[in-house]
Amino acid sequence: MTQAGTFEQLWSEIAGIGRDPTTGGYRRFAWTEADLSMREWFSGQCAARGLDLIEDRMGNQWAWWGDPDRSTTGGIATGSHLDSVPDGGAFDGPLGVVSGLLAIDRLRSNGYAPRRPIAVVNFVDEEGARFGVSCAGSRVITGALSADRARALRDADGVTMAEAMRAAGRQPDQLGPDPDALARVGAFVELHVEQGRDLIDRGRAVGVGSRLWAHGRWRIEIPGEANHAGTTRLSDRRDAVIECARAVIVTRAAAEAYGSLATIGKISIQPGGVNAIASSATAWLDARADDEPALRATVAQIEEEVGSSGAVMTEESRTPQTPFDDVLVSRLAGLLDGAPVMSTGAGHDAGILANAGVLAAMIFVRNPTGVSHSPAERAEPEDCLAGVAALATVLADLAGAEQ
Ligand code: GLV
Ligand code: MN
Ligand code: MN
């Protein structure tokens, strides 16, 4: 089969998994049935290719071509994640995993034999859509998220990560830093659909990631007082929803003031009755900036303003500005025909690994809509194949050829 045919086939195998037929978006949340189906699909594809699947202490799936434990310098890993945000697009995550599998096919069909082993990884729970902390899979194995905190994280139904993992047949007591898994990785190159419009503007199919912006998530608890919607005078109300609306406006103003990005995309109102004034509200803030001072100033301004009405803001996760290795980035751009080098405000497991000292970089594939975290996210088949070819070139260069 041609690479285009294999790409189409793999894509169609996962197209229906976790897809909401009404919105067309994906709901593949960590340790749910959809996520487990994606994991099973991945292990089947790895088995079909004769790759050796090793799960680390968090359940991230590493499929190795060659024995990483026999390499003193570690192997070259690629891959991404198979979970999604609520109503996510098809490409964010899966494009990197599918491209990794296809890059291996391509290298093999060219008769290439790697000197260093090569892996494709599926990171668990990258989006943090269920338990609130992004990149939980890579954070736990690098120690950036403690096992105790991870196990205790709760989803919207109050189910802890430990309970969800147990229900999925796993042993949450095994969670923890996994230096052995990390030692196998000499370098990590994550391919990802672009989540913006840079490559459209530049007229290029493929780019190289130079750094991730500083970013984080905060929970804002807003107090109110429950009362009757039909009998309580406006002047007597302590309405949590009014303060929540103010938090949204304040967030936008702070982002504008500091040249950052700040978003409230999730709100929960208690008790949620049409005819009751809200007793409390919870809003989740996502804030990002290319540099740390802008992020700090944005968050401080929001915290000060919402704090004045009694709201309490708690950090749920935070990732510093993360530059990828300069030499590796230039090497990739050179290998890829002078591909444009771009920073991004999106978070990725590649960033978590880079912060843990792993040599890491990223390849982006053009997205003709420029839209992501939405069913409108796209990548054209020719660009996906250009991404596979780029990834194969990079893997071969980094892994070297057997003499
Ligand atoms: C991950 O996609 C993030 O940047 O939120
Ligand atoms: Mn994403
Ligand atoms: Mn992603």
Question: What do you see in this structure?
Answer:
This protein is an alpha/beta fold. Helix content is 36%, strand content 23%. The protein is built from 13 helices and 15 strands. The protein has helices at residues 3-14, 33-48, 94-109, 136-142, 147-152, 161-167, 179-183, 198-202, 240-258, 292-307, 326-335, 349-355, 381-399; strands at residues 52-55, 61-65, 75-81, 118-123, 185-193, 206-212, 214-223, 227-228, 261-270, 276-277, 280-289, 312-319, 322-323, 341-344, 359-365. Helix 3 (94-109) packs across helix 13 (381-399) and helix 9 (240-258) runs antiparallel to helix 10 (292-307). The two termini are 29 Å apart. One manganese (II) ion is lined by residues 85, 92, 127, 373.
What's this entry about, in short?
The protein has helices at residues 3-14, 33-48, 94-109, 136-142, 147-152, 161-167, 179-183, 198-202, 240-258, 292-307, 326-335, 349-355, 381-399; strands at residues 52-55, 61-65, 75-81, 118-123, 185-193, 206-212, 214-223, 227-228, 261-270, 276-277, 280-289, 312-319, 322-323, 341-344, 359-365.
